[in-house]
Amino acid sequence: MNLHEYQGKEILNSFGVRIQRGIVANTPEAAVDAAKKLTEETGTGWHVIKAQVHAGGRGKGGGVKLAKNLQEVEKIAGEIIGMQLVTPQTSAEGKKVNQVLIAEDVYYPGDNEPEEYYMSVLLNRANGKNMIMYSTEGGMDIETVAEETPHLIFTEEIDPATGILPFQARKIAFNLGLSGAAFKEMTKFVFALYTAYDKSDSSLFEINPVLKTSDDKILAVDAKVSIDDNALYRHKDYEAMRDEREENATEVEARNAGLNYVDLDGNVGCMVNGAGLAMATMDLIKQAGGEPANFLDVGGTADAKRVEEAFRLILKDENVEAILVNIFGGIVRCDRVAQGIVDAYKNMGDAINVPIIVRLQGTNADVAKELIDSSGLNVESAVQFQEAADKVQKVLA
Question: Residues in domain ATP-grasp fold succinyl-CoA synthetase-type (predicted)?
């Protein structure tokens, strides 16, 4: 589950990470009120107006601007709220901005020049350890840094059993070229950031940039946070932060129906029970010359109601040219799934306008095949994996 910047900063702040303070607003008038309140609390004279969408590169699309007075705050907020923000991480259509973050100006003058760094915490799946990735090149696309100056990207791997150790935090601060007060501030920042990542059950914390202010404070100017969906039962307060306006509408509908669905760009819809079988089915479709249109795991109770709901979700995608149903009947009997498919097909009538290939293996698979073959519907049965692939290839030809 992705969070907005202001929500990620709330989590960071709760674990003692120093942040660029701000107040969220959804109208220009509310933005002015937020700016006034922020000036009272922080003394900031200028304000940064930031579009709140689940995408990076907002500044490149005109979603981050500096306001030097209240009139500019109102004007800029009015321009950003409601706009379709297009960034390198959105589709060509962009994302609608429903709210903005009014943030304090932290690039104030002082004894030293402000410096920007990049820092993220994530899981290294290759070795099962957490990893802090960091660079002196903050404020830039990390992909560009990795491509053009890979020697400026550092990593520090952390054993989840022990957590981050003091020498690792010091090593990070040293590699960033810090000393004195800034060095001590950075070690505290790194400890708090890792703790926030660990205790919030996140899959990603990305701060770009981490700022060393002119008076040697270290703070998070941005926050890109993804929470592990599987851990949300432990964090009801985080679950309440979900903004379904930012998510794929079909995926939201599937989640509310208790189905595991991920929207893809292909032409063959998939309905499968079990994540492993779903991945194998997607490979099968690729080998047959098609492209998976979705990942859809209906779970172990593939009754008529769930099957019908799954069909409706798949057919929302206009690019779907065929549907492959691949069910292994272990707990659930194949004949019950077959009857569910037949009933769902009849209930939906003309809504199903593409060929369907059904492969059912397991308990009562022979009975299931007979049910499908005698249904009189535009449904073809298959027994073997390769047979199903051949039939997918045939309908796409």
Answer: 2-210
